[in-house]
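ok trying this again, last paste got cut off
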Amino acid sequence: MSRPVPAPYRVTATVVALLGLSAAAPFLYRTGPVGYAALLVPLGLLLALAWTVRLGQWMLAAGAPPWPARLTLHLAQSPQAGQRGRVVRAADAIGRGANLDTTPAGYAVWAVLRRGSAPQLHQRVVWERWLRESTGEQRVLVRRRAGVAVLDVEGRGRIWPSSFTLRRRPWGVVLTPLGGTSASNDLSWWRLLTVIVMVVALLAGPALGRGDHLDAVWATVYVVVLAFAVGQWFGVMPPGRQSGERPAAGGSAKVPGPRAEPHRGGRFTGTSKTRKR
């Protein structure tokens, strides 16, 4: 198995690719009409700027003093049909009548941090390959600064944030412990490829039809890179089966959401660096 690439390197490469592809766009459109693919450039530049700011937050948080906490990873899932509005419940009933899969699905990974009697912290995180085995409660070192928290998992590695640290649960979703849910939580390769192919056909198809192959290749690569950057930003868990598929230990299936200031005291007396496999 190939060695996984850490999130900072993946994000940096994505930002460089988006900037490079965006810079190449004016030269491509000098010889041909501007198609729908030009709409990708503002989105790509905006996302590259957002990721650049987030990388700066990562650097600041990584240098903060650590403090110990307990971590449980969760999937942010859409609520059950009975917990939603009447329109959604009606659509769910119609879908069930048409034999469609209406099981709530969750793809974004959230970290829930606990420390003694202090209030909980919630944060969306960038996906790492070894997170599939990270079910149940674990000990971590938290380095919090600039509105985000970097998490060092003992014996595993470092988890990087893809959102600000929240003192409340995220709105509009239900947090279910990773590996402890009976709901659908796997993004299939077929569904992912279908969406990408449809977007590529819409944006690169016109260029291919007029024989502008270079423009079509540029649009295809831009769509793939942009999809990868968006997936990292929203903490999407890629296709694949979770390890274990069992309830989380320690009775952490419920995630209360008190609204209070988190405890920031004390430094961890152990080592501030974690071992990496």
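PB: full thing came through this time. The chain has one domain: 7-233.
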